[in-house]
Design brief:
By secondary structure, this protein is α+β, with helices and mostly antiparallel strands. It has a four-stranded antiparallel β-sheet with strand order 1-2-7-6, with no helix packed on it. A three-stranded antiparallel β-sheet has the order 3-4-5, with no helix packed on it. It comes from Paraconexibacter antarcticus. InterPro entries: A-crystallin/Hsp20_dom, HSP20-like_chaperone, Small_HSP. Belongs to the small heat shock protein (HSP20) family. Pfam families: HSP20.
């Protein structure tokens, strides 16, 4: 009988692979076949913090502007919409359908104090951009440092 060396790292890798497979069956949508209702999908999104605002970019290829909604409720920004199928379900004719269709919804929590009237959105070339100005108290402020001979800032 041959001895096999036990390698814990290999066992952990195997366990991780099995856990990934298990979770993918729960969170990935089932294949769309004829007669099923549209499934949901999640668009790719970037959130960029700049000096005076946040910029959110969402890739929405194949989605019409009329099918997208951007809503701000308190400190929650909601981007939702629907990508409609470009084909009708039929018995034959398609070799493979991989592009997801159906509704989507992403909700992001924003810092307190965002002015809802200052939020602006633009939709061009399948990319939604939402610009959210930072609240005044959230903006970084540079503090000037006085030179040795300068008068003190606060009198004692």
């Amino acid at each position: 009988m041959a001895l096999i060396r036990w390698e814990p790292a290999r066992e952990i890798g195997s366990l991780q692979t099995e856990m990934n497979r298990l979770f993918s069956t729960f969170f990935e949508p089932a294949p769309l076949t004829g007669g099923e209702h549209p499934r949901s999908w999640t668009p790719a999104m970037d959130v960029v913090e700049q000096e005076d605002h946040y910029l959110i970019r969402a890739d929405l290829p194949g989605v019409r502007q009329d099918d997208v909604a951007v809503e701000l409720d308190g400190d929650a920004l909601s981007i939702s919409g629907e990508r409609r199928a470009e084909h009708e379900a039929q018995d034959g004719g398609f070799m493979r359908v991989e592009r997801a269709t159906g509704s989507f919804r992403r909700v992001l929590t924003l810092p307190k104090g965002i002015d809802p009237e200052s939020v602006a959105a633009n939709f061009a070339d399948g990319v939604l951009e939402v610009r959210i100005p930072k609240p005044a108290e959230r903006r970084p402020r540079r503090v000037e440092i006085a030179v040795g001979d300068s008068p003190p800032l606060v009198e004692a």
